[in-house]
Amino acid sequence: MKNIIKLSLLLLMALSALMLLTACSNEQQIPPDEEQIGFDFTSGVLGVIPSNRTVGEIEIIGEETDEEAGLHEVLVKVNSSDRDVSYLEYYALLYMQNEEKEWGLVDFREDRTNTWTKTPLAGVMDESLFRSAIMGMQLSIDGYEWSINEDSLDRITVSNRNTQLEQSRDTVIVDVVLSSAALSAQGQIELEFTFNDSWKNDGQRIAAEFTSEYLPHAVLDMTDERVLDMVTEIRQFVFSSGGTEQNVHLNREQISNITLVQETSSNMGTYKTFEHKLDLIKELVTFEVDVSSTYNFVENSWTLHDLQIMPRVTDVRLDGTIWGGIYRHRGSVGGWMDNTITVGLREFSLSFTELRNIGGLRARLDSTSPDASYSQYLFGQSINYDRLTITIEHEAWIIEPPSSWRSGTIDGSKVSFQGYLNVDDSEIVPYGMVLTHMGFRSFNNMKLIESPLVTDIVDDSNDNGDEE
User: Fold this and answer.
1) Which pLDDT tens digit goes with each residue over 253-270?
2) What dotted CATH number matches 220-315?
3) Which three-class secondary structure state does DSSP give residue 169?
4) Identical fold, 32-120 and 322-450
5) Buried b vs exposed e over 160-199: b needs ≥16 C-beta within 10 Å?
6) Could you tell me the pTM of the whole model?
């Protein structure tokens, strides 16, 4: 009896040991679970999840085992995230048993039969997206044309944002500081972003107008004194008087009423043009002069690039002036062909009255030679402001010349005159010789004697030139 019991105990122990060995063998063959797969992802064995991501939940959604081949394929859903985005991705993993019946990962592939998704966890955090969104924008700032590029963009910072993760939208207002060689400008730009796998710019607009100011070293102070220096440095301009050109000097003491008409800038403030007006007041003539100056900002300083002087006459003060001079005339008509011409020299004075109501100019020419005297009225159109030219012709005798002074007939002694006003010298310069009935007259330059009102010239209200 005791032997039977002893045998039974031995059989029971052997059966227990067999069951234990079988259980151990089956445990070694269990395929990898989520824990093992998670270890493979997080330990970098796969190398498919970037190191800046955190792997979250891993869920097995399908698996298949080939026991004879010792292969086991697992389809898993993997949740991971970085600072800004959460990712839902699918992978198929292939495991194989080794000789010790241990499962090891031998291959993997992306499973795109399921939809991969990205969901934003925060708004746009990458500053490079802000920079790329505003690159190439064209701005008009205080009349200056700016282009935002790598050279002009100084810095960009987030001022405010409205993030709507449910709608995958982020509205960001950024403070933008621009700079050029001469200017600094700042303002705000509103940027719209939408999320579709990643944040992408969806548009931009000006949120706060940009303003600019010159950098301290680039201020160009265009004072009246600077304009004077600039203008007088060129010393003179050329004024065309008919077929003759005269140099008009820009004397500092004769310049007044300097006015800035317009100031324009381009190339982000490094190219400036000033339009000024000024009065140049000579003894008898006033010019209004347009001055256009252009400056370039080069190597941290302003350089005068171009200067244009455009004068025009605004006033001529001939009324009441008295002029003196000498003119030559033929003495003998009969000697013209046989070279026996005699030439007489006549001293004269010429006084002007402007007939403003009819736009005319009357002059009185008086002989001042000591041995005889005569005088006549001359008349013509007002002085030509564009050329400063004077054209006057005999109008009427006041005192007829003696026969001994005449150039042939009395008509030959009638004076016609063409000339121009020399501004700087206060002279009337004649144009060559005048021929009348085979006689000739030529004037020397007339010198200004005085400029009072002339009371003995016929009143300018008498349009026909007759004496009262």
Assistant:
1) 999 999 999 998 888 888
2) 3.10.450
3) strand
4) no
5) eeebeeeeebbbbebbbebbbbbbbbbbbbbbebebeeeb
6) 0.62
